[in-house]
Amino acid sequence: MTHREILKAFTGLLLALLVALLSSTIVSNALPTILADLHGSQSEYTWVVTATLLTSTATTPIWGKLSDLFSKKLLYQIAIVVFTVGSALGGIAQSMPELIAYRALQGIGLGGLQALIQVVIAAMIAPRDRGRYTGYTGAVFAVATVSGPLIGGLIVDSPLGWRWCFWVCVPLAVVAFIVLGRTLKLPVLKRKVRIDWLGATLLVGGVALLLIWVSLAGGSFGWVSWSSAAYVGGAIVALALAVLVESRVAEPVVPLRLFRNRTFTLSVLASLAVGTAMFGGSVFLGQYYQIARGFSPTHAGLMTLPMVLGLAVASTGAGQVISRTGRTKPFMVAGGISLLAGLFLLSTVDHATNLTLMGGYLALVGLGLGFLMQNLVLVVQNTVAMKDIGSSSSVVTFFRSLGGAAGVSALGAVLAARVATNIANSLSHMGIHSGGAVSGGGGTFAISSLPPALQPVVRGAFGDATGTVFFVAGCIAVVTFLAVLFIKEVPLRRTLDADAPAPAAAAVSVEAVSVVEAPVEMTSVLRGRVLDAGGRPVSGAVLTLTDMSGRQVDVGRTGRTGAYELSANTVGEHVLLATAGSTRPAVSTVRLNGNARWHDLLLDSQGAISGRVRVAGRHAAVAGAVLTLTDRLGTVTATHIAGGDGAYRFTGIEPGAYTLTVSAHGYTPHAEPMTVGDGAAAQHDVELSEAMEREFVRHQGTLSVD
Question: Does residue 507 register a pLDDT over 80?
Answer without folding.
Answer: no
